[in-house]
Each structure stands twice: as C-alpha cells, then as structure tokens.
Amino acid sequence: MNVLTDIPGIEVGHHHRLGDGWATGTTVVLFPEGTVGGVDARGGAPGTRETDLLNPENLVDRVDAVCLSGGSAYGLAAADGVMRWLGERGRGFPVGTEPHEVVPIVPAAVLFDLPRSTWGNRPDADFGYAACEAASAGPVATGTVGAGAGAQVGSLKGGIGTASTRVGEFTVAALAVVNARGEAVDLDTGAFWAGGDPGELPPAPGWAARPAAAPTDLNALTDLNTTTDLNTTIGVVATDAVLTKAQCKRLAMSAQDGLARAVRPAHSLFDGDTVFAAATGARAVPDLVALDALYSAAADVFARAVAHGTLTATTVGDLRAYRDIWG
User: Fold this and answer.
1) Which pLDDT score, from 0 to 100, does residue 216 have?
2) What is the CATH number for 89?
C-alpha cells in the first residue's frame, strides 16, 4: 500500500478539527508489544516528551505508541489521552504485581500550527484518546488530517504523508507530518526536491490531482512564509527488523537525511524536526551490510513521505495546496 501500516502490527489513527476556528489535530502510531524505539531531534525549536527515555543508555527500550500533534507545546497534552487509552488495556511498562499496574511508554512531538486556529483551540488529551480509537492497520489517510490539519510547508499547505519500501525480506516505512519552514518544491517549476516532478515519485496514497490554478497565483506564495517563525516536521520511521535502541537511533538519523533531501532548507533554528524510529522485531538482520541497507531505505521513504504529505494536502483558508496550484 506504500504506507506505514505495511509493517504488520502497526496501526495509525487521526483525530482533528477543521473549521469554526479550528485547524489542528493529533496522529497516533500504535506499535505491537516488544517494539524497540529510538529518536533523533534536530533544529532549534523542538517540542517533545519522553525523548530522553529513548537514549540508548537509559532503562526502557520498548515503546507502546508515538503521539504526533499540532498545538505547539500545548499539544503535548494529547499524549495523556494516548496513555489513558493504553493503560485501560494494560499496555505499558510493568511497575506492579497486577496486570493493570503499567506505565505506557508514549514518546511525543508537536509542531507549530497555532496561527491556523483561533487562540486557545489546540489538541488536548481527548484528541489523543480519539486518535487511538480511530487507529487501524489498514490504509492511512493522508494530507490535511490528524496532526497535519494545520500544517504548512514553506509557502504551501502541508500535511500527513507516508511511504514504504521493501529491502530484501524487510519492510521500511515512514509517516511524516510536513510543517517545515523550508520549501518542499521548487516554486519556479513545481518540481519536488525529493524526486523532481510528481510523476517521478511513487504514487502517494490518497492522491487525486486538481485543476491547476493560474500562474499569477504564484506571486503571493513567497510572502506567506515570512510571518511563520516556528515550524517543525515530525514523524516516524519503522521497520520489521530486530534492532537495538542504538540502531533505532541511527535509523531515525537516516530518516532525517531524507528530510534534508526533501525540504530546503531543513533543520533551521525555527524548526524542531524530530523523527522517532521503531523496530517491531519480526526478523533478525543477518549482517552489517543488510543493516546499512535499512538505513539507506529510511532516508528514501522519509523523503517520499514528505513529498506525499505536500501532494495530498488540501487548501485551508488562504494557505494554498500544491494540487490547487500545479494540479
């Protein structure tokens, strides 16, 4: 399907509000038990929770879910709802003798989308809980959904994108919430930095072209980004391989390389770009050459996920979508 849920056991759910002063939301990625996690954060303005726990030297090496949300630092509250949902199901790190005595491990990251909503309208714990309720292992909705509801990439509407690939017997997949200060496309031509023209990219889930707007619409694009001082692209890269926490961190670092291919500039002082990595552990990696191939694939799928998030986004207010300009 070319989506994150191509990896067995992974589920994705969105919850968002659009209209009536709202343009924000939350996306949750649920992992099968035993999934090992890692993280890599770059840029000067991160908004995160439980990332130190994923450092290789620290105690817990399993993750139950990742929460991605709009709302800037306020949106970190959405992770409370994810923890509540998991705790009700006995999912988490055991801390007592009873099955329900667990602490769910839910790393989280947020993006800056506050200008797209009336002040005070931002995700809370109910958003995280609702995203868990909506999660499934099927097709993943992309574009202006979940945490991508209020996203902006450079001069254009951003959104949720996803992609996957096969590397021998392994699957590597990514989901990106594209909210970068930099541009994902060359504004002179509409070509994507991640892969040239859209036709050179593997098809984006949910993509349906719209009629192109008049070229004069481009005149206003370069002015839109001058008022957006805080951004952040966040996401998840995952594989079904057996990896350690340190190897997961390297997988996340490789995905960040994909972000740098897909957005110009990336990792700015005003971005808090954060990528979580997850390894579900279905099969062992035979050698270092195979491991390095997974890292290379992580960069590729994350770059494509960024492009797909831009391709499938839809216009919100005066923030124009790629499909409505280039079609």
Assistant:
1) 43
2) 3.60.70.12
